[in-house]
Amino acid sequence: MAKKIVLNGLDCFLLPQKVLYIPFYHLLVVSDWHLGKMKHFRKEGLFVPPVEVEEEISRLELLFQELTVERVILLGDLFHSDWNEDWTAFALFTHRYPNISFLLTRGNHDILVNAHWAEARLQIIPQYILAEGLLFSHEPVADLPAYMFNIVGHLHPGCVVRGKGRQQFRLPCFHLKNNVLTLPAYGKWTGLHILPKEDNARFFSVIYDEVVEIKEFI
Asked: Each residue of 138-174: b (16+ CB within 10 Å) or e?
């Protein structure tokens, strides 16, 4: 179940797939996928679990079927490092949806050459701004005007919550503080950056197929 929040009068939905959806603009926002990460580590001789990129792609394709999507903004760190065959799978995916535009606000891991971006129908932009004052970028923008909201990635935000029997769970979350909304990393094996509880911050954690605002956590 999605969680609705309102930013500058615009309905925004935090989805359990760890993405943001804005119905008015038919806009889906995905952050920090880190495609190719496991293949990159295996190439370097590290033992890591196999990850099927098609599984992560299929999650987006299911959303394309459930929602009206005309534009996808990828908030940086789309591909983890140098080219590998995961990029081919991603390019095939984007070409299956010629009526959807794909934009990338480049992050620090996005080092592929322009020919690879073009192969996947990606438009590279420094940032993207909606009329309501929502600004999308990989990292927070310095000196953001007070009337604007910055939608960012980069951090892979998470929080620690306590369960029954003194159990503790590390969970990915959407983090809203002042006028910055940080999205969780979309990729499965990206890790979490645990953020501290603060009075002026809100945490919306992904728990199975639901997004829940967390008010009591460690």
From this structure: bbbbeebeeebbbbbbbbbbbbbbeeeeeeeeebbbb
pTM for the complete prediction?
Answer: 0.90
Rounded to the nearest 5°, which phi and psi values hold at 88?
-60, -40
Domain encompassing residue 120:
1-212
In what helix (H) or strand (E) does residue 37 lie, and over which residues does it extend? helix 37-43
Q: What is the CATH number of the domain that holds 60?
A: 3.60.21
pLDDT at 66 over 70: yes
Tokens representing 122? 């990606």
Amino acid identity of residue 69, one-letter, is V
pLDDT tens readout for residues 139-191: 999 999 999 999 999 999 999 987 766 778 899 999 999 999 999 999 887 78
Of 204, 199, 195, 194, the residue nearest 173 (C-alpha): 204
Tokens 């639901």, residue located: 210
Domain count, the chain: 1
- Round the CA-based radius of gyration of the chain to a whole number and report it: 17
